[in-house]
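Morning, I've got a small favour to ask if you have a moment. It would help a lot if you went through both lines with me. I owe you a coffee for this, so here goes:
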Amino acid sequence: MDDSAKLEFASLITDQTKLLELIAQVPHQALKQYPALQKYLVIQSERNKELQRAIKNGDFTEQEWNLSLYRLLDNLGYEMVQTIDTTILSNRVIHLVGADIHSIETLSIQDIGSEVLSEILIKMANSVIDTTKVKVIKYPWLAEKGRIDFGFYAQLDKVYAAWVDGFTSHYKLNMWCESNIGTRAPQSCIKFFKEHGNPSEIKEWLEWKSTR
């Protein structure tokens, strides 16, 4: 380290504010050995202060913030589970409820069992790791891996039309899909419509659809 670098380094370590600003930009994983410092950086961040002001001003409550967080986990979990083999979970649910589909959502962790749930969660975690190792594909119907519902994407123009016609929530759009095209709507489809618009105007979709 030359003299200029030493001076800059000395200036940095003696100015706590600048040092913390720099450390705040370090990836989360690199600071995993410093949990107390991570917590402090989060609390002191401008984003956190912005959130606390919004709650204090009554823009929304802390509970509403947490519910949004849980919905995010629900959406991410739905996307992850599309990429794994859920046979072990399906078999367990069949054993418990048979054809009584309405009873599925009433099952508890104890009903399913820790071993089954642990295996599913491990598979989901591994799918996240695998996803970061492969090239991200812009359009889901072009994906070569994962459990992609090609039947849904083959009718994406119809789903888009329903979304434009007022089925703007995932719940409503999913109900429409089940009633009209016999399949479910992925959680990500509304975000896709907002970002990419009408699939009938997407060259890659038209080319893919022509081969179906």
In short: The chain has a mean pLDDT of 85.
